[in-house]
Amino acid sequence: MAAENCDINAGDVIAVWGCGPVGQFTIRSAFMLGAARVIAIDRFHERLRMARAAGAEILNYAEVDDLIEELKWVTGGRGPDACIDAVGLEAHGSGLAAAYDDYKQKLKLAFDRPTVLRQVIQACRKGGVVSIPGVYGGMLDKIPFGSAFGKGLIFKMGQTHMHRYTAPLLKRIQAGEIDPSHQGGTGSVAGGRSGVAPTSSHPHSSTCRSYESYCDVSRSRWLIVPMCSTLGPRAQFDSASQ
Amino acid sequence: MKALCWKGKNKVQVERVDEPSILNPRDAIIRITRTAICGSDLHLYDGYIPTMEPGDVLGHEFMGEVVETGPELKKLKRGDRVVVPFTIACGQCYYCKHDLWSACDNTNPNAWMMEKLYGYSGSGLFGYSHLMGGYAGGQAQFARVPFAEVGCIPASWLRKIATSTLETL
After folding, report:
1. Under 8 Å between Cβ of B27 and B17
2. Would you call A147 an interface residue with chain B, using a CB distance cutoff of 8 Å?
């Protein structure tokens, strides 16, 4: 839905912030819908490598001085045709704005850290689309709405309409066009392997620890954490979780 | 049954809770075989989403086997293996009929809370705060899935999907 919301025309350049599972599938979907180039933005090498394997160009925001300038530079001065915020309310970033969001959230003055949202608005080309699959919850602060208005941006966002996509996506998985398994398999999109998630599998018994680890930034190259209760019968679950 | 419960900011715990039962005629009870921790679960874990209460069962990404069906379910059968969408949709309201399922008007019993904040409420979500309906989530042995025939696609229907579209299901 994040990619579909961009109304991609053949030849479009799409920039995707966040290379977690949503970002990874968005990159592949954008190519599937006709994007000529996808620029993937994150700071974790592992995730960026997966994005590159899908055919995306990669940008490590922690290694560039000015992300917006960098995007302008690699798009011939025009900016991406659509910018996708696959990060949402717990964005990390660098610089003054990110620190400001961080403190405001810690002081309970705000639910959200809209660092990425500001960047997608700034980076998008005039008349382009800002697509937001990343979750936001409250009143956002310091959003450059003037920039959005001045450039005539189109905003599309929201919780995914799961029921609209389940059957068509299963169809594509069955046809081998998408491979959601970690191993990659035979599925191929735009010449790249499309294997995506999961990246770390755990028994129920270690669930609490999984939350801690997933949260721990040093390990957050994990994409999604499936818990397999190999269990079946209840008795097995009980013994597994003791 | 055992379930993963939210206990407060940065604290979760596997606890014994009551098993779910059929409350409405279109409910199904699913025995969960696989579930996942999503990045959005970390927003709850980190304490950023309001209206969580200690003891709430987490988890909105899960799949499993149907073990019990409400009297008005016609297609889902005991033993069907299903993937459950995290948004809950009735399939009959204005929004569901307009293919805007996550805006379903009938699945958030706490819509009044959302209406105060957002003007209108979206659909209910599994395991995602009382603001989103207070539904018990899928990081548990069993879950109650309301309107189970709207969105749950049994593995046995997969062959049909390969040759048809959603409308014909």
Report:
1. no
2. no
pLDDT higher than 50, residue A233: no
Residue at B98 is within a domain: no
HSE at residue A48, side-chain half, CA atoms within 13 A, is 14
**Residue A234, pLDDT score:** 34
Restricting to A residues 82-101, those with a Cβ less than 8 Å away from any Cβ of B are 88-90
CATH assignment at residue B148: 3.90.180.10
Q: How far is B139 from chain A (nearest CA, A)?
A: 8
A4-162 CATH choice from 3.40.50.720, 3.40.225.10, 3.40.50.40, 2.30.110.10: 3.40.50.720
Q: In whole angstroms, what is the distance from residue A229 CA to residue A237 CA?
A: 7
| Interchain CB distance below 8 Å, B40 and A135 | yes
A165-169, B7-11, B71-75: range with lowest mean pLDDT = A165-169
Tell me which chain A residues have a C-beta less than 8 angstroms from the C-beta of B86: 162
**Complex-level ipTM:** 0.83
Classified as helix, coil or strand, A218 is helix
Q: Which of A105, A159, A175 is facing B87, going by the closest CB pair?
A: A159
How close does chain A come to B158, measured CA to CA in Å? Answer: 8
Q: Cα separation of A25 and A30, whole Å?
A: 9
SS3 A9: coil
Cα A204 to its chain centre, rounded Å, is 26
Rounded mean pLDDT, B19-48? 93
Has residue B158 got a pLDDT over 70? no
Q: Global pTM?
A: 0.82
Which residues in A lie closer than 8 A to residue B166 (C-beta atoms)?
166-168
